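User: Predict the complex.
Assistant: Input components as received:
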Amino acid sequence: MAAADAVPILVAEGLTKTFAGFTAVNNVNLSVRRGTIHALIGPNGAGKTTCFNLLTKFLTPSGGRILYKGEDITGLKPADVARLGLIRSFQISAVFPHLTALENVRVALQRQRGNSFDFWRSKSVLGVYDARAAELLEDVGLAEFIHSRAVELSYGRKRALEIATTLALDPEMMLLDEPMAGMGHEDIERITALIRRVAANRTVLMVEHNLSVVAELSDTITVLTRGQVLAEGDYATVSTNPAVQQAYMGDADG
Amino acid sequence: QDNKTVRIGNLSDQSGLYADLGGPGSTLAAQMAIEDSGLLAKGWKIDVIAGDHQNKPDVGTNIARQWYDVDKVDVIVDTPNSGVALAVNQVTREKNKAFLNSGAATSDLSGKACSPNTVHWTYDTWMLAHGTGEAVVKSGGDSWFFLTADYAFGHALERDTTEVVKANKGTVTGAVRHPLNTADFSSFLLQAQSSKAKIIGLANAGGDTTNSIKQASEFGITAGGQKLAALLLFLPDVHALGLQVAQGLTFTETFYWDLNDQTRAFSKRFSERMKNKMMPSMVHAGVYSAVLHYLKAMETFGGNPGDGAKVVAKMKEMPTDDALFGKGTIRADGRKLHPAYLFEVKKPAESKGPWDYYKLVATIPADKAFRPTAEGGCPLVK
Amino acid sequence: MQALYGQLVVGLINGSFYALLSLGLAVIFGMLNIINFAHGAFYMMGAFAAYFLLNWAGLGYWWALVLAPLMVGAVGVLVERTMLQWLTGLDHLYGLLLTFGLALVIQGVFQNEFGSSGLPYAIPAELRGAQNLGFMFLPNYRAWVIVFSLVVCLATWFVIERTKLGAYLRAATERPELVRAFGIDVPRMITLTYGFGVALAALAGVLAAPINQVRPLMGADFIIVVFAVVVIGGMGSIMGSIVTGFALGLIEGLTKYFYPEASSTVVFVIMAIVLLVKPNGLFGRTA
Amino acid sequence: MAEAANGALLTVAGLEAWYGESHILHGVDFHVRPGEVVTLLGRNGAGKTTTLKSVMGMIGKRSGSIVFDGAETIRLTSDRIARAGIALCPEERGIFASLDVKENLTLPPVVRPGGLSLDQIFELFPNLKERLGSQGTKLSGGEQQMLAIGRILRTGARLLMLDEPTEGLAPVIIQQIGRTIARLKQSGFTILLVEQNFRWASKVADRFYVMEHGRVVDGFASADLEANKQKLQDYLGV
Amino acid sequence: MTGATHAAPAAASGAAPSGPLAARAEILAFLVMAGLLAALPLTGLIYPYFLMQALCFAIFACAFNLLIGYVGLLSFGHAMFLGTGGYIAAHTAKVWGFPPELAILAGLAAAGAIGAVVGLLAIRRQGIYFAMTTLALSQMVYFVYLQAPFTHGEDGIQSVPQGRLFGLFDLSQQQTFYYVVLAVFLIAFLLIRRIVNSPFGDILKAIRENEPRAISLGYRTERYKLMAFVLSATLAGLAGSVKALVAQNASLTDVHWTMSGEVVLMCLVGGLGTIFGPVIGAVVIIAMQQYLAGFGQWVLVIQGVIFIACVLAFRRGIVGEIIAFAQWRSAEKR
Ligand SMILES: Nc1ncnc2c1ncn2[C@@H]1O[C@H](COP(=O)(O)OP(=O)(O)OP(=O)(O)O)[C@@H](O)[C@H]1O
Ligand SMILES: Nc1ncnc2c1ncn2[C@@H]1O[C@H](COP(=O)(O)OP(=O)(O)OP(=O)(O)O)[C@@H](O)[C@H]1O
Ligand SMILES: [Mg+2]
Ligand SMILES: [Mg+2]
């Protein structure tokens, strides 16, 4: 679906992270093309989550640089990275538990108002966002849960809510860390379809262990082992690479 | 006048470091004064209530205000702690009630802060400085370092003593301020020690004084040749220290239970009614004598005029005379005048029994014991 | 110079108390995730226990050193069983609030009974007197306090960081239900730990009695400084609280020599600086 | 489904459980025979984890009957249950941050002989050996899962309960865990699994139970899997 | 991020009702409260000075509640703002001769400024550490005030003149002053309610619920927390300034850590994270201190017992329990 010659939106050059002598990410070069779904896979402890944290600046790299849309973001703070349109999800589901689904989404929509310290204004000014929030919730199949509090939602629905919240920011690029972890089959299918749909005009970088999901969604796959890039290419190329099979897939499709 | 009710408030430190020298004993002293005044028999209704100011001026002010506004208190007595006393002095004047202070030391009560509603009864910092300070300097202690309680009282005592030391050609090498109610004086004492002054002047009171004296001996300060001058020491303090530690200290007081037959008789009555059988301190004595005089003045009106300034003015007009302080007067600035005594603590061997602690060294006549009116700067006597 | 050494030694003595108290706090915090606000009150109870033992039972200082921590520790056990136990699973702040209330009650009761001024407690005969160190008189008793608390601190450190028991303690701190599901009686361990932490406070109280007198409020303000010590050290490690405790005592001593006016604030200033540079404290784990 | 439970190592009958006010299990019945591998299947929120925790005694309020090795355990606290020989590898892994990997691994006390030695565990999970001195929670997600499983293998508990042991693991490791389970079974361990990954589970389990809304609604042996395919589809949406 | 996973004791989870019905009940409650407070001194039943003190503490408690209830931060050092407001207002009124309105303004500005500095340091930590950090910093402020010459140490600043507000209202008239204090209280109360229900307030709630998520959405959460901290400090300063003029003194009591504990107690008794809770809690506690004053130090013991009882049994506080009861009733009906 993506044009092969699309420009890279996110580039990491020589990305390295060392924890007290242990190198978790070692000189990784990564280039994510605009408009594609890019998967990061690899055995446990390969450094995928660490890579994610580096790219979104939740961790500070020990070396290397990160370019987003040609701009060097290596020195930015996490909130500022997010403000550039690069939004991440978390491995554990991240919602605002005691807010309703609508309020959850609205918190994201409110970002459009800039850094709003207007504590003297009534919150009725936020009413303008309600319609858009409802629309987003409908998109992810949560229409009937609009006024439920997030804690009361099931796991799969929480993930959906999280995606709706992320989409509310209309991000150019989304980073998803194991979006299917711990989900039942039904939910997996629903979320896969959802990701496919929302990725239509954005870029997605995701970490996932569920190979069928990876196979179905991704345009490009980068395989990490021991902090380094082992292989890169589409699913067919990568899954037939003997080194990848040995290090990651084993002898079956899981 | 037909209103014959009077309510006395004993606003004191009821549980803190000054509780032994004022506190419940002062309530008893006031009660005894009421009984001895003979007014009850003449149909007067007089009672005493007690309050704990916890050595906090704001707490003291709040209690005083509420007593005056709500609880119909006519006169507040005792009130050790100069900070609290100055605050109550102010409220009393605003509400036009009466304030008979016995426990606080600051000489400002009859100086800068004097008020037509206040009498400062028992002693003050000027008296202490002149009584004790002068005696110490004259016996060769001519360089001083102060250990000062960091509030109105300590500051006033340090100030007044410094003047005395300088006037007698002594020097003051410095001072260290410690918070009220300190337990561990070691670092302050080390500072005092390194000043090399001959005399370490203790401008503090109650538990603070006894602690500094004890710890000074622990750190070998007295053994090292420096001497302590306890500028304010009360009978309960000596009792707490014990003669072994306290022997030889000289200090000034205006009352001692063993001065004469009358004081002995009063003290016996007093101690029998005290929970812990304590002998009265000079603060207790002051409360007794002040309340007695107040009631005498009240009696001349034939009833309670409900006007504090008026009663206090009457008190100043009448000469005072009671068993504890003898004959005396109250000056226009509110200063009660009576003699002061320079005492020395006996050696354990000299003591003939319980509470036999003091040797009289010198008597300072009433006209010499207190600051001359002109030097005080009281606006009332301009 | 003399005065400097003097102040340093006095600082070290204060440091001993900081270390003992922050150690107890760290042990309790580690296990119950509670900042034991009543720690100062238990410290005071330790001193009072010594006082009672002497005046009511005629048992002297050395007995008090053993019995007072046991007695107060037992009170701690009771408190844990009857109150703190019910807070497991709630936000940790409730523990802080409950022990705050507890501190008010304990201090209030003692204040009502004994007033707020001090009761004297004599230095034991064996430790009277002082050594002339040339630069200062070091009272024997204070030297004893330094040495003894150092020994207690190190022994505690050893047990917690170097033994299996310590590993259970640390693990149960994080996930008590799971450790229990491994076959360890966690509730009893928690109770005993609280008792132990409280006993450490009481021990400090006994040590302090001859220096500070026995006063209902002796722990009230002191404990806040210890909290600052804890924030600086970071609660991350037992060793951290010991080292920070002694070090801050010394720093206070230095300040008393060079700029006495700042001596009561210096700990807090250091805390502010540490928070700026290392928000998790000097020995704290990163979140 | 409540077939004869004679000679079972674990028999659960009429188990009900609550989280605070919410009633989660409404009478769960199943049993596990010695040396068997049994898997609980079910959608998210069906009550699988709650069932394991109830057996372990980690749920505050529960009723019914849980008989392990001939003894009723419903009134026991979890430490006593552990000592009776049941061990749980929890869903959220439960690695201790304040302990290093080695301490984590050796934390659970050995309750009876017959567990694996440390070397045997390292053979299963070489990653762990490499990172022995690290802080437990500094391991990657998958490494933590290995640590959590390895930890209970030492204790010698006869009944191992593994809650979604494959979650977040790379396919190679998942296969390895499959082999491990087979080996443990051979050495005489009894295993109760909770698993979403139904295809994988079908390779290791002897029998299945299906849970729905806090009840066991179906159960069958691995051999009858094909016959039950359609039913499973309805239960799980596979 | 362990702190974030346990929602702060705010227990706002169940407490804050929403919907038009609840909003109407809230407005009604506000009007009843305002009316009652306006009428009380006319009855002559209650000592007006006591009421003024209670209102000052109510402002203080509301300010504190803003932080714990809506940001999930338990400050254990709020006395420093109360005290700062008091000292600055007292000093400017007494020594510099400021009229009351300027003195109050100076007091709250100073408290806000200290709030900014302290906040910058304290918001780096959460949960218990935040509580301890604020506690320790407030103790530092306490020592500074103990030694700074202008505060007069233990003696405090006494005989603060009350002056004329805007040159019009003579504050030494107790009645006049009472209505001024009441007006200040009502304004502060409404302001806090507005803050909570503003877009800013919504973001604060989101941060309390899940801070890393708020960051990942692009919010610079530190700034929001700091802003909330400064607002709370400023309002606490307002309470202190007014109180100094009411009591005509400023003293160490207001900066001491026991005062920080007292405000926690007020909110806990009334109901953390409820809008009326702090007001009721403040009145209850101040009344208790007033009427139990005769019991001496037993007041402290009683307070401690209440603290323990609240934590063990009534974590929702008076207002929280009432709301919970109302919700339970309406659920029964359905
Ligand atoms: N804060 C840290 N300190 C020390 N080591 C760390 C830290 N975070 C991660 N590591 C180590 O870095 C390596 C990579 O970890 P990372 O979490 O990135 O793995 P991953 O690829 O996401 O694995 P998984 O698929 O299991 O989640 C692991 O070996 C881990 O132990
Ligand atoms: N601590 C808790 N408090 C209240 N309800 C809970 C709690 N934990 C789980 N629940 C509820 O109990 C029900 C069963 O949960 P359980 O964790 O047993 O499901 P599960 O079958 O293990 O699901 P999953 O596959 O998602 O792990 C769910 O509805 C869940 O929302
Ligand atoms: Mg990962
Ligand atoms: Mg589960």
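The longest helix of chain D spans residues 171-186.
Let me know if you want any component modeled separately.
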